[in-house]
Amino acid sequence: MRFSHALMGLAALLALAACARLGEAEPLRVHLADIRLLPGGLLEQRFQVELRLGNPNDFDLALDGLTFALELNDMPFARGLSNQAVTVPRLGEARLRVVASTTLLDLVQQVLILGQRSDLSYRIEGVVYLRGAARRKLPYETSGRLRLLPAQPNERPLVPL
Prior knowledge:
This protein is an alpha+beta fold and 161 residues long. It has helices at residues 2-23, 104-114, and strands spanning 29-38, 44-54, 61-72, 75-82, 86-88, 93-103, 119-130, 137-147, 159-160. It has one domain (26-160): Sandwich (Immunoglobulin-like). The chain contains 2 helices and 9 strands. Strands 1, 2, 3, 4, 5, 6, 7, 8 and 9 form a 9-stranded antiparallel beta sheet that branches. Strand 1 (29-38) and strand 2 (44-54) form a beta hairpin.
């Protein structure tokens, strides 16, 4: 009987230590790695979005899913979610492909804007869901810019600025 109480106490202490460690976690860094138009209908466009997940923490982050909203050029563009499990290694990265959807109007607005610009600004915000007993969720937000057209004749397009 005493052994089982001691074992349960030890398990509770380990769970508290894990929660305390996650409480000190730095936010996951989520960057836009790629975006591709998928076949679809006229009113709703779907994209395959590849996200690069960076873990600045000294411990693995086991994710059970995520949500995200993507803004392009300071305007809402697409939303997506994923229930894919992925572990982002400590001080490492992982890639995750998710499907996002947008409306025809949002797509047309971006095409018109991109015709006048040589770069694209983006902002991604959302929530990652951690796998395990804690079932915690951590918010994240990232922004950046991509150069679409070369500024110089020998420069490569579509690179982060």
